[in-house]
């Protein structure tokens, strides 16, 4: 590096990047601050970085609300089962498709890739779900997206890159394809499998549009849909909750607290998982 | 014959593994394509596709006559073009800045932070924005008031709504989109930088003559792909950010299809709209792919289907 000229540029660059990353963090800090602040401080515009006061009223109201707890548990359940089902389907499908010598593989792969560029769209999908009797059932939230084709391609590309010799050796010892897949290929693929888990889990946890489309009864609301309702005060929920805590909280408290509850699981696991997905994304690159 | 039998005996388990996926793609991806037929029908939910009356292209004629359809078409293009104009260069700039950072640890921390918004749902992003720009109490307006400026209706004034919309989509995706550029940057041959050093090139000359040419093909492919998606728009962001005051801008095609189809049960009309879009979209993407391939790049399918 060119020492003489680095200093000014570096200072500007580091400062700029620090400021940029603060803009990513600040909205979260602000929301935390609002959720814990006293009504007076919020209404008079005194909250900007740190909570003014220590008001836990919004969280108390949230966790006393049965429908909120229900949405939380329902979404957790959807995420766990959805991830398991999607992961199994994706990995099991990607493996045979990664075999160069498998007859018929190209036709199948092209038919799969075609669905990334052309699909039935919102209404035919809705009518299908209706016809299958899945409306208002949890299946409507994970069956249509069981395999994410983009993630399938990432997995496929990774399997292709595995050294052939390892599988050959296992074959010589008499293992069949499925055995090789289970005890040789899967253990070698953990980093990419972690990537898939992250993307599927985030997808299911953030499930909003599908719930808006397919779920009718309030006990099948995902957390994001519930948050949407709180934000727009579409039901008596937020107003009645606020009223019962009238001298402690205002709608702003409740909205901010709900936003945080809806995203805190992601924020907590994110730092531990983020090192995995970068690799996964660049493996799939823009090829998908 | 014998060869075939031993091929099957050796590989039948691989085919078995494919069965669930075949069922999945048939039911959940190809059946809805068949459902597109109802855009040529006067579809009746109780009669189904088999017994509804065929009306040829009548539905499409109705659709193309609708003022609202063209308005939402325009709204979609407007939002997509503006997002492209700001959102496309932004991650390139971020990647270039990150690439100039010598301290690996600092670089990694900034990268990790910048990817995070990608994993946050649009409802959460919207919730944070609502709190932040609230008149009188939101910090954005409090700040404006304190420095003596009038308050801004970020979510109801058309122009400020656009700023909020574009700003939030850049905020959410800039980091994640920079991953591909960073990957391209890291694959530039370091010998090129060394010889530039020997020639006495400064930092900016090196960026201009080595770095930018090094990521040119990635930039071109991603730009073509983005242009290919100009009529495609997600549902969640415009639906959440939209309101009566800004409906001219926020009522994009996906929202329009939802309102006509799901909320008003105009099944044939909404499906026709979807089909019309899917076809335009498909043609654009194929064109994009052909152009990318012609330019000597690997294209969308980048050797993966071979």
Automatic annotation (TrEMBL), chain A:
This is Carbohydrate ABC transporter permease. Residues 72-273 form the ABC transmembrane type-1 domain. It is a multi-pass membrane protein. One of its GO terms (biological process) is transmembrane transport. Signal peptide: none annotated. Belongs to the binding-protein-dependent transport system permease family. GO terms for cellular component: plasma membrane. It comes from the Bacteria. The keyword Cell membrane applies. It is found in: Cell membrane. Pfam families: BPD_transp_1. Keywords: Cell membrane, Membrane, Transmembrane, Transmembrane helix, Transport. The keyword Transmembrane applies. Its main location: membrane. The chain crosses the membrane at residues 12-33, 69-95, 107-129, 141-159, 180-205, 254-273.
TrEMBL record, chain B:
It is found in: Cell membrane. It holds the Pfam family BPD_transp_1. It is a multi-pass membrane protein. GO terms for cellular component: plasma membrane. Keywords: Cell membrane, Membrane, Transmembrane, Transmembrane helix, Transport. One of its GO terms (biological process) is transmembrane transport. Signal peptide: none annotated. It comes from the Bacteria. Residues 73-288 form the ABC transmembrane type-1 domain. The chain crosses the membrane at residues 12-28, 77-98, 119-140, 160-186, 207-227, 270-292. Belongs to the binding-protein-dependent transport system permease family. PANTHER family: BLL4140 PROTEIN. This is Sugar ABC transporter permease. It comes from Cohnella fermenti.
